[in-house]
């Protein structure tokens, strides 16, 4: 009986390994001409944006991705704080010479704080998360909060603006640049408004944003990234570019539980500064830190990281639909709400791919592998 059990365990292990390889292991897809990406992000130390930064740097180290730069926008945090966290991130990873950090838009095209306050008071609900608006805007370096391992010591923000960097990169590599849009879309809206000639030169945009057929998070109807700047979202979604949306519809079904958290945070053979920070910043609810009690049923979202996974392995998307997508920009309960049309769309919309379901086991293997590799990363010569 024991031999049979061992044989079954071995067979299951082999099958799992082969299945992951077939889906595209992050260790098996170095490329002669890796995809070129700009990460447009409301960056944070090691939330979902920061996690994506780590994963992208590891993919670049193995030669399967080329990160042209990180462009920062206000969203989760004010611009200055996001830039500070991004600078420390690339320095911590040892990629500060290869991946520049560019400061973009500090304010949304639409939504000032007075409007937000009026809407939230008149139309309550949602989780109440309003990102940068929840705290005073930092006016100088003395107002910034250092990551747990301190500010960057020798890495500086690039002198070129994020908008100019996006424009220059797209013109330098026509038809080759993918933008991972994992924050509010203000930078992209400004770049394409000021330089519409780049629109046909952008290869594709992959978003984490919107709530198409599910409730929102910040409000009952709207997802945070697109709610923060609805005008920018409406502008960019109408551009005639190949676009893929990873909305709350799918991210609500791909969550980190205690078992997944432990694979990143508590593998004794894979302890790095990244896993330590992951533990410090994501351990509440799992390790009972920061006043939270451990809860075996606790889960949390890992939103933005799905965009990078989809770029590298589109087969991770097990269910997609083709829809025309729009965003409401009117004052009221639906401000920032996304809507998908399968037919008879309003004029000016672009048809795009909307991801509905993911291959969670394959994605989780991809996610854990990249977050637990050694750092600093070893970039190719």
UniProtKB/TrEMBL annotation:
GO terms for biological process: purine nucleoside catabolic process. Gene3D superfamilies: Ribonucleoside hydrolase-like. Residues 1-21 form the signal peptide. Keywords: Glycosidase, Hydrolase, Signal. Residues 37-365 form the Inosine/uridine-preferring nucleoside hydrolase domain. Transmembrane segments: none annotated. It comes from the Bacteria. One of its GO terms (molecular function) is purine nucleosidase activity. One of its GO terms (cellular component) is cytosol. Coiled coil: none annotated. This is Nucleoside hydrolase. It comes from Paraburkholderia sprentiae WSM5005. The lineage of its organism: Bacteria, Pseudomonadati, Pseudomonadota, Betaproteobacteria, Burkholderiales.
């Amino acid at each position: 009986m024991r031999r049979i059990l061992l044989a079954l365990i071995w067979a299951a292990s082999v099958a799992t390994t082969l299945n992951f390889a077939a889906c595209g292991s992050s260790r098996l897809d170095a490329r002669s001409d890796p995809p070129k990406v700009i990460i447009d992000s409301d960056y944070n130390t090691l939330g979902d944006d920061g996690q994506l930064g780590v994963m992208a740097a590891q993919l670049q180290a193995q030669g399967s991705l080329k990160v042209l730069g990180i462009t920062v926008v206000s969203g989760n945090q004010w611009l200055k704080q996001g830039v500070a966290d991004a600078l420390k991130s690339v320095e911590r990873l040892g990629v500060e010479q290869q991946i520049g950090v560019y400061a973009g838009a500090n304010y949304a095209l639409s939504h000032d704080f007075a409007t937000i306050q009026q809407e939230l008071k008149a139309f309550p609900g949602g989780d109440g998360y309003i990102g940068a608006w929840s705290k005073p805007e930092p006016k100088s370096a003395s107002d910034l909060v250092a990551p747990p391992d301190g500010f960057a010591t020798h890495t500086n923000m690039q002198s070129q603006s994020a908008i100019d960097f996006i424009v220059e990169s797209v013109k330098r590599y026509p038809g080759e640049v993918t933008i991972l849009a994992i924050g509010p879309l203000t930078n992209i809206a400004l770049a394409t408004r000021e330089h519409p000639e780049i629109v046909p030169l952008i290869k594709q945009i992959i978003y984490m944003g919107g709530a198409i057929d599910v409730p929102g998070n910040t409000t009952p109807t709207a997802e945070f990234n697109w709610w923060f700047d609805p005008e920018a979202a409406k502008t960019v979604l109408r551009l005639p570019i190949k676009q893929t949306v990873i909305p709350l519809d799918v991210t609500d079904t791909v969550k980190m539980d205690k078992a997944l958290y432990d694979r990143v945070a508590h593998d004794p053979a894979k302890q790095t500064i990244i896993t330590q920070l992951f533990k410090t910043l994501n351990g509440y609810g799992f390790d009972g830190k920061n006043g939270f009690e451990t809860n075996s049923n606790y889960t949390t979202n890992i939103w933005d990281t799905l965009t990078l996974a989809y770029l590298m392995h589109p087969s991770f998307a097990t269910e997609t639909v083709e829809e025309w997508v729009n965003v409401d920009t009117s004052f009221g309960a639906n401000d920032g709400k996304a809507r998908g049309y399968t037919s008879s769309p309003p004029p000016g919309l672009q048809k795009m791919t909307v991801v509905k379901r993911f291959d969670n086991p394959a994605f989780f293997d991809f996610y854990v592998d990249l977050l637990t590799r050694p750092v600093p990363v070893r970039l190719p010569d």
